[in-house]
């Protein structure tokens, strides 16, 4: 397998610059993993909400006894 052009360029850098590139790659990977984890958490939240709705967790909101307020309640803002 032949190295790609970016790898070839990095290999031509002096050692201190190669270490900087490696540090930057580590930074990018950490940021990517953090974003991927956040996206996974968001999907899990959406899935949890769908499961709660499908399981009837919010059906009590449809009960007429829960409508204790009207548009006339409260003070105007």
Give an overview in words:
The protein is an all-alpha fold and about 80 residues long. It has helices spanning about 5-10, 15-55. It starts with a helix and ends in a 23-residue tail after the last helix. The model has no long low-confidence stretch (mean pLDDT about 85).
Task: Name its key features.
77 residues; 62% helix; elongated; single chain; mainly alpha
Quote the distance from N terminus to C terminus.
Answer: 69 Å
Q: Major sheet: size, sense and barrel closure?
A: none
DSSP E strands, number: 0
- Fraction of residues in β-strands: under 5%
Helix content: 55-70%
Which class do the helix and strand fractions yield? mainly alpha
Identify low-pLDDT runs. Answer: none
Gyration radius, rounded: 27 Å
Approximate shape: elongated
Order of helices and strands: HH
What is the average per-residue confidence, as pLDDT, rounded to a whole number?
86
The count of helical stretches stands at 2
Question: What's the short story on this structure?
Answer:
By secondary structure, this protein is mainly α. The chain has helices at residues 5-12, 15-54.
Topology:
Blueprint: H1 5-12, H2 15-54
């Amino acid at each position: 397998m032949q190295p790609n052009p970016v790898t070839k360029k990095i290999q031509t850098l002096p050692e201190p610059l190669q270490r900087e590139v490696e540090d930057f790659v580590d930074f990018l990977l950490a940021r990517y993993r953090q974003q991927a984890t956040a996206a996974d958490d968001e999907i899990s939240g959406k899935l949890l909400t769908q499961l709660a709705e499908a399981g009837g967790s919010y059906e009590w909101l449809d009960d007429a006894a829960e409508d204790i307020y009207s548009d006339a309640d409260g003070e105007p803002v």
